[in-house]
Structure formats: structure tokens, C-alpha cells
């Protein structure tokens, strides 16, 4: 679980987030790059960044998700499962994931059920359905 699969989940995140070199409204938050949130609209200033900076921010955000998994998931996971969870946590945030049924299922050790739950978890926009399906396939690909 050393993040070796970063390219797999990094490409998944890039595909679903898209690259935005100027800020955009992400549910009341300013976001830039590949979905990097940096402050509440009205409280933070607008930003324009380069693609190189977007990649740096993406790596930093992925490392936050990976660190969360290392600290808070006690069930043994393999790399495809970690990769899928990094994408999910990157998208939902650690707080939302921490309170989720999906985390409870993973903590219970029922990884097959968790893989199936991903498809319907955290759906708040039409694009989330395709993303969760891809994450579910990734997660289940590592489930024995």
C-alpha cells in the first residue's frame, strides 16, 4: 500500500475531474486544476494556474487521501482497492467518507459487499454514476 498504483487512480481522477486552469464553483467552493478545492466562494480569491501546478495539487490531494486510508482503514486492502478508495476519498472528502456506510462495510471486512456498494455511494450529480462504476470495477478487480 505504498501508492504504487498512483498512475491508475491518478488517471481515473483526471478523467472524471477534468482540467480547469481557472477557478470554478464546486458546490460553493472554489476549485481549480483537477478538482482541488481551496476555499469558500466569497471568502477566497479567484485563481488561475498552470497544468504543472494542477499536477502538483493533484498529487498533494491524492497523498491526503492515501494518508487517510493508511491511518483509518484497518481492513487489509490490496493495491486496486486502495486505488479505488483514493479516487472516492479525493472526490468526497475524508469527512464524508469517514461517516459513510461504505467505510463501515470496509471496516467490517466485507470487501465484496463494499465493492458492490461503491456503485450507489456518494451520487450527487449525473457524472458520479460513471465514476462510481469505474471505481467499483477497480475495487472489485482487487477483491479475492
Note down, in words, how this protein is organized:
The protein has 144 residues and is mainly alpha-helical. It contains seven helices and three strands. The chain has a three-stranded antiparallel sheet with strand order 1-2-3. The radius of gyration is 15 Å and the shape is elongated. The longest helix has 22 residues. Helix content is 58%, strand content 11%. The mean pLDDT is 90. Helix 3 runs antiparallel to helix 7.
Topology diagram in text:
Layout: H1 6-17, E1 20-25, E2 29-33, E3 36-40, H2 51-72, H3 79-92, H4 94-98, H5 101-108, H6 111-117, H7 126-141
Helix pairs in contact: 1-3, 2-3, 3-7, 5-6, 6-7
Key words describing this protein structure:
144 residues
Classify the helix fraction into a percent range.
55-70%
Order of strands across the main sheet: 1-2-3
Q: How far is the first residue's CA from the last residue's CA?
A: 16 Å
Which ranges are low-confidence, i.e. pLDDT below 50, for 5 or more consecutive residues? Answer: none
User: What structural category do the secondary elements indicate?
Assistant: mainly alpha
What form results from the Cα inertia axes? elongated
- SSE order, one letter for each helix or strand: HEEEHHHHHH
Main beta sheet: 3 strands, antiparallel
Q: How many strands?
A: 3
Mean pLDDT, to the nearest integer, reads 90
Query: Counting H and I runs of at least 4 residues, what is the number of helices?
Result: 7
Beta fraction: 5-15%
Q: What gyration radius follows from the Cα positions, in whole Å?
A: 15 Å
